[in-house]
Amino acid sequence: MKNFLFIAFLLFGFYAKTQAIQGLVVDAETNVSIAFANVSLVDYNVVVQSDENGLFSIMGRYPLPLTIRVGATGYELKTVKFTNDESLKISLDPIHFDFDEVNVTASGNEMKRNNVSFVELKSVKELNEVPQLSLGQMLENIPGVYNASTGPGISKPVIRGLQGVRVLTLLNGVRMEGQQWGGDHGMGISELGIGTVEVMKGPASLLYGADALGGVLYLSNELYGYQGAHCIEVGSHFESATLGTVNHLLYKGATKNLKFIVGGRLASHADYQTPSKQFVKNSRFQDQNLKFGMGWHRGMWVGNVRYDYSNSTIGIPGHSHDSVPATADFLSNKQLRKKSLPVQYLTNHVASWENKLILNRHTLQLLTSFTLNQLLEHDEKVTIPELFLNTYNLPYKFNVESRLKNNVVLNYGLQGMYLSQINAHEAVGRLVPNANQADNGLYFVTSWTRNKWRLQGGARGDVRSITSKVDEKFTSQFSKSYVGYNFSLGSSYEISKRHLVRLNATSGFRIPHLSELLSDGVHHGTFRYEVGSTDLTTEKAFQVDFSYEFTGEHLSLVLNPFLNQIVDYIYLEPQDYLKGGMRVYNYNQTKSGVTQYGGDVAVHWHPHFAHILHYESSFSYLYMQAREQNAYSFIPQPRWSNSIIARFSMKSKVKVDNVVVQYHYYLPQTTVAQFETASVDYGVLDVGMQMSVVGKLPLKLQFGVKNVTNTTYINHLSRLKNLGLHSIGRSFYVKLLIDLKIK
Question: Is there a contact between 242 and 270 (Cβ–Cβ < 8 Å)?
């Protein structure tokens, strides 16, 4: 009875609490107060800002102890434990330059430097120094990440040469499950309200689920905003190459216990213009996006409800039923915006409910969600769809984090989903049958920190059951269960405050996707007839990943080589005959496996003699080999990216914030599969400027030119490459942003 009363006592939060938390943020060397420092309660999504005297106050009642994180421009981020009701005095150590604008991962809610595995962490603001047309294009600014596209409206992330079902995308922890298996369908996610992007390269299946052989893309919402304040952001963006307009409205606000984020976005683009001044037919697209988030806390209970909606109308460029189409057939002298056939309508609903119970040494998290992905495609008839596929998914995750003595942390739990794939009766064609899929997995990860060492290891087991239904086209039922196991072992060692090394060995497995097992139909956007194979077995991978980081006073350097071996690799093998006017491709599996090796190098230099300048450079390289030639198609070109940014601190009412120059150079790619053409090298130069107006209506204005030299090029990962359709030519852009903050 005593134990029951004690547990009830905890669950209702009647234990040591604090009311308002007050404190002062000062410089550790001079003891001078630091104005406008960000002070956050790590577990409660509560953020406040110190005033001009360095004082701060956090409203509300919170159970003790609390983890408080404090950061300010020019100072090292600091985490402190708050254990009583006394006022805090937090001293921050000054640094010459903070190389990481975003230091804290949203996936693990810890310092990026403390991760045993190397994580690429960028804010959307960093990725948008020169504004891009889509989230997929923004991701290309991350070393080792590429963009597979079918025109500007359709893009998918590529991590270390792997894409589609081998890359797992999470939105606020919710697994996105839809058309990632199809090359002619986009991500269905916009940058609206997205704050940070994290990329975990290579097998990352322990905490995120099976299938992530290429890596994990983790997208997180912006913070709700400062407690006791409201923020309204209005933005408009114009692109000349597509005559495109993007308009958005975003509200963020937080009271003592409630937090909100609400926004909408409209985008409309006409056919894009090539360097030859012609327009690629039917490359037009329109997007509509809505976002809602609400967070709250009561005692030790923290909750978040989120909903994201997207609806895209996307033309399919390069569509033809001719066996030998000519490039001129897909070009026009007129730039059109009105939709025409073939066209696809892609709709996504993502709803989630997150609950966290924060105890002294344990944090319990339950994330339940619902996603609906709807693909509607019209090929030759306006009234009758060619494809109409609904994918319903119910993902869940229950995680326990236990912080034990001797710096040992355990993460363990359950994760899975129930997916149902249903074709609408009115559709003429079907690429895959109606089917159900159930995933369930158990995982356990432990980490241990001592002095300069941090060790982490874990294991995971998953079971996937797939059952298809019989109809007039798919007359044979398929039912099978697959089992897979994973392990991970890694370590990091801080040689000194400036030098850090990591070494990780991870296994991975990927259970065949429904499309690979059961496809039998035309995939228009990829220009092929795909045939699945029920004999496919689970892919298995083993990767060794090393990273070295140097962070000096004026220089940052990252080296990240890797070696990855994939056994029973699944690929599409072209056949020597046509079906439905398109070449037939069969899903097949390698007998000898596939070997990948390569890596990324990144440098950030902030010269002392020119304090306003920042020079960033990265080089990404991947080599892939296999006995079966067609197993290594779509290998990204080696890429050398450079960015020079001059940041100014002006006191005037109208001021220049920064000037940016970017140059991306892609080296040739000659390692190609059958029916795939090699790619030559090319370089693209972009320039831009940002200005701001200080006043009652604060304005920010970005403008510039992309592809300044009007370079004629085709990226190796463009699905329009074999048709000879060039990428976007010179484009002028203007972006206006109004950011109102009200207390």
Answer: yes
**107 occurs within a structural domain:** no
Would 114 be classed as within a structural domain? no
CATH of the domain at 67: 2.60.40.1120
Q: How far apart are CA 291 and CA 250, in angstroms?
A: 9
* Residue 34 Ramachandran class (φ > 0 left, ψ -120 to 50 alpha, else beta): beta
Q: What is the pLDDT of residues 188-220, one digit of tens each?
A: 789 999 999 999 988 877 888 778 888 899 999
7 has pLDDT over 60: no
Cβ pair 434, 421 in contact under 8 A: yes
Q: What pLDDT digit, counting tens, does each position of 453-503 carry?
A: 999 999 999 999 999 998 888 888 899 999 988 999 999 999 998 999 999
Give the model confidence (pLDDT) of 396-431 as tens digits. 999 999 999 889 999 999 999 999 999 998 888 888
Which residues are 235's β-sheet partners?
A: 248, 737
Does 139 share its domain with 83? no
Domain hosting 300: range is 119-467+486-742
Residues 586 and 647 in one domain: yes
Give yes or no: residues 592 and 636 share one domain: yes
Q: Are residues 547 and 615 in the same domain?
A: yes
Domain identity same for 82 and 171: no
Q: Are residues 232 and 343 located together in one domain of the fold?
A: yes
Q: Domain for residue 103, yes or no?
A: no
Q: Cα-Cα-Cα-Cα dihedral of 106, 111, 114, 116, to 10°? A: 20
Is the distance from CB of 252 to CB of 260 less than 8 angstroms? yes
Q: What does the alpha-carbon distance between residue 568 and residue 540 come to, in Å, rounded to a whole number?
A: 7
Residue (of 715, 714, 687, 720) closest to 702 by Cα position: 687
60 with 203, same domain: the answer is no
Residues 86 and 128 placed together within one structural domain of the fold: no
Q: How many angstroms separate the CA atoms of 736 and 699, rounded?
A: 7
User: Who's near 359: CB < 8 A, 6+ residues apart?
Assistant: 10, 300
Number of domains in the chain: 2
Q: Please give the pLDDT value at position 184.
A: 63
Q: Which of 544, 618, 457, 547 is nearest to 113 (CA)?
A: 547
What is the predicted pLDDT for the residue at 19?
66
CA distance 336 to 281: 8
In 3D space, the residue among 245, 251, 285 whose CA is nearest the CA of residue 266 turns out to be: 245
pTM: 0.92
Q: What is the CATH number of the domain that holds 142?
A: 2.40.170.20
Classify residue 450: in a domain, yes or no: yes
pLDDT of residue 574: 82
12 pLDDT higher than 50: no
pLDDT value of position 4: 40
